[in-house]
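Reading a protein record of the kind used here takes little practice once its layout is understood. Each number in the token line that follows is a code from a learned vocabulary of backbone shapes. One such record is shown here in full, so that the layout can be seen directly:
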Amino acid sequence: MAILGPIIKAALNIHEFFTHVDDHKTAQEKVLKKLLEKAADTAFGKEYDFNSILKEDDLHEAFDNAVPFHDYNSMDEKWWSRIKNGEENVTWPGMPGYMARSSGTTGKKSKMIPVTDDMLDAISSAGTRQVSALTNFELDAEVFEKEALALGSSTDLDDVDGFKVGEISGIAASNIPEFLESKYRPGQEIARIEDWDERVQKIAELSGEWDIAMISGIPSWLELMLKKVMDYHKVDSIHEVWPSLSVYTTGGVAFEPYRKSFEKLFTKPVTIVDTYLASEGFIACQQRPETDAMQLITDGGIYFEFVPFKPEYILEDGSLRQDVTTLDISQVEKDVDYVLIISTVSGAWRYLIGDTIAFTDVNHAEIKITGRTKFFLNVVGSQLSVLKMETALNELQEELNTTFKEFTVYARKIDGEFYHKWFLETTTDTPEEDLAASLDEKLQEANKNYSVARSKALKGVKVTKVPEGFFNAWNAQQKKMGGQVKMAKVLSEDKQDEWEEFVKEKLG
């Protein structure tokens, strides 16, 4: 009989009761005030006179008027480069011990983003909030006394100029509190293995010794790991290895395209919970079972600002015009695409994280990620977001009873006409021409601007089917495997020629 589980669940339920946030506006006002107060004597705080901002009645308006927007390049060139050269008290008091290496899908080289002890505390608190929120779901109490497996990046961090450097999931995993280590799998020794295939092989070999109830990781890589474990044990369901498995915490990419393939691995119900952990911090997590939207963590060391995503506000490189006025969380509306801007306890200030979001429930501060500022396919005015793309593909896979787990798309001129070129990972027998026609129709239904573009300068859609594992092979060629690695949904212009050579070589 499980004894510890009910006790842990009760404790988490109490934690959820006392840490739950209802007044998100007040929570955000407190966060902004604390950020400004703590950083007032840093080089950044003096440059933009945080002490004067703190004297104003409307902190958000004063902050908006005084501090410019920053993207990674502007933040790094003027400020974070000084930290990397050993200067203290630049954008946050003291000196960060870690740098998060972003494995993002854009840019020619990895970004190096400061991670302070305050940010690690905020991530830890958000993680506890996420686990506490599981008490809102219909889970057996014994689930809470079982083990949890997190498939992230390697915890074997690099030593670079006095900093510990790795991807944020690896940094967070390397700082798991001692009292949780007995429940954490695969454990620090295996988590330190850098080689993806070797790490997964070790997990498979030891998997039979573990009683896993919760798993977490990006769907594409977690699915590969689960299949490896099943193959190792020669079973048809992961529940034959881990009968207690009840919760999957997903993130990084939309889960819906993977749902059918994951359901084939399960023979028992598994609760899917979405999260939003970025290199810059833990931004949101699902709190309620009645929605798959995520609640912004409004009291966790990150101040959020929002700008409606309109073409006239966005520069060619995906950054914002400096004269745009931001909204705070009390001013947003439902179902509007916003550029997300954050200021954090790691010393990121009015920072364009690169994501666009939309609120599904303003009162609960619940959001969905709709795309990237650079990933809106806006050639000839189509204004096609990743969310609209995924919506159309989800409808198409239901219609054809198939799956499109991964895709990438970009605009290309062919014989003087613009087309959207889609590459779909699928096993469907449906001809590519039929897929293109159906996808085009559903995109027009999902997006008015796309429909207008199709009646003018956008000639049409072309689809190329690629086999399972094709995108993983591309990532391997790009020397990006596992952990937080995500395939670019909209392929940047500088990668398109290389991609087409790769496709030609692999498909003939």
Q: What stands out?
A: The mean pLDDT is 86.
